[in-house]
Amino acid sequence: MSNGSYNLMLDPSMFLTIADDERRLDVMMNRMESLAGEGVALHIPQAFMIFVEDNYLGERDEDGEARWFNIYGGENRDAVRQSNWAEALYTRLRDRAELIQPFTPDRGLKEKHAEFAEALDQLMRGQETDGRFLPSLFQSILQEWIFLQEQSWIVAQIDRAFEQMVKAGSVCLKLGKGVLGSVVRKTRGKEEDEAITTLDRLLTVGK
After folding, report:
1. Dihedral sign, CA of 178, 93, 4, 165?
2. 205, CA 20 to 30 Å: which among 61, 63, 119, 181?
């Protein structure tokens, strides 16, 4: 982080675990607006936005969709896939395009992280039992990893994407709310009865 700005990526699991529940989507979007109002720059992987848009436009690949949900979906992923999830999610992301920006690395960053990209590529190709490699899913995980290296932090509901990063040779620091909450209170002088905001957490880990 630099120049007083706080960059935060939203892992696709933040959306795909609740995409069948419009009320929960709206609640989360309202929270994102509050974060943006506190100076947090929000991002999603560009590959994820393309995946959502393709499904919204009717270019549905059921096998590819299943693979995305296997990484980013929750235990309810089958129910979510049977819902009108793409329209519910795409319209909200489209309406908040100025709030949540798709992230894709430029050529320089791609070259800088080419070694890890190759390792991740080999890992994911080796996991495909039917020989079908899904470039969009690979790109999403790679974009998340590069963002972690170059920008700041990612929040997620599901950690399967990070498991892929670790298998490809990366090191990820994962902090649960309980552990992070204790660190925040100590670092920022918060009393036990004081609420901890997401910005509090960002200010703590960004030191």
Report:
1. positive
2. 119
